[in-house]
Amino acid sequence: MAQQLAQGGLTGAAKLKAVTDLINSLTQDLSTSSLGPRERDAALDELKVYARDPRNADPIFVKEGIETLSKHAFDGSSATTSRNALRCLANCLLVKPSTRNIFVDLGYPEKASIKLTTAGVEDEFLISRIIFLTTYGTSVNLQNLIDQHHLADAILQNLTRHVKLWTGSSGSSFKAASQDPMTDMALTETAKLLFNVTHFCRQKVDSFTPAIALIVTLICQHALPQPKPLDPPLGSLVNALLTLNLASEQGAAALFPKANPAALCERLIQVLDKAVRSYPDRELDTAVLPLITALRKIYELAPAEGVQRVMQAKLLPTTKDRKKVLGKGQSLASLILRHTTNAMAPEFSKAVSHMLFELSDKDATKFVQNVGYGFASGFLFQNNVPVPESVQESFQASEGGRQRAVNAITGQFIDKETAPELPEMTDEEKEREAERLFVLFERLKSTGVMNVENPVARAAREGHLGRDVIDGKDRVEELD
Question: Which family is this protein grouped under (predicted)?
Answer without folding.
Answer: Belongs to the synembryn family.
